[in-house]
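Re: beginner question about structure tokens

> Can someone show what the tokenized structure looks like for a real chain? I only ever see the sequence side.

Sure, here's an example I had lying around. Input first:
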Amino acid sequence: MSLPGRPEAILVADMIRGGFLDASVREDLIALVRDGKAETRLTRRANALLLLDDGMSCMAVAKVLYLDDDTIRYWYQLYGEKGLKWLADFGYQGRACELTALQQDALKTWVAETLPRSTARVGEWIERNCGVSYTRSALIKLLARLDLEYRKPKMLPRKLDPAKQQAFIAAYENLLNTLGDDEAVLFADAVHPTHEARPAGCWAPKDVKVAIEGTSGRQRLNIHGAIDLETGATRMIDVATVDALSTIALLMAIALMYPGKRLIHVFLDNARYHHARLVQEWLARPGCRIRLHFIPSYCPHLDPIERLWGLMHKNVTHNRCYATYNDFCHSRATSRS
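And the corresponding structure tokens:
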């Protein structure tokens, strides 16, 4: 094999004869190795060439650099073919996709329509319709290149009314745009955390079995709460039952939060107790500063306090076990504070 600078350098019986580098090339490589700012993968290649030029075997160089000897031989071969420009050549181009553009489009359409739950099923479809067999790792790379990913679908209510949602959003934005300094806006809802361990996905040591101790308790808390998105302030009350009376109690607590506000807008869902006669009579009192607005039916995603409940579950109930109901109640109070 002829190498740049030393045509007589040869590879004989798996041995590389040293002294194949020109003096100037060797000086350049030594300078690169000693350059503290040079990229590590560059200096490792330069080191390998210098050690081979010193007469060390591929196996010995590999041991020194914590590589395998096949890599050292391959680097020597690339240097012979490309010269010093090979040192900075780290580009890698994978093999071309075995599916045609039309087949890739058909695959994306099929995935979007059927939502396959496993890569095995995707592989079966490709083999059946395209005559190409993929390994699991190759399938994952193919799907990633096609902008497809594995994720859990979100659950949406079946009776969504897009027109009502859009009308609500428009009305809410108009309210915010015309809101006076003496007005406030809150979102209210109820939540019922149960004294029960709730397993949830988590990071854990690979070789350690992960489990949480179960609880048989079914007692639950009833919390009626509200959140002000502008300030982040919340108001929570514990109630025996979530009903019209607890709704009135929450509205009274909200009114006490804003003694200087002329008008307080409270957004609620369409639970029957929110529309109860007792609530309507309370609102009709002279001087009542609370005005209710109702979120469209089957649209919990339009109520921001739902995300607060989700955060509560992550910090209180997910992967947590409480020996007693009182411990559970105390943990909820601590997280809320």
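Each token stands for a local structural state, so reading them left to right follows the chain. Residues 1-13 have pLDDT under 50 and may be disordered.
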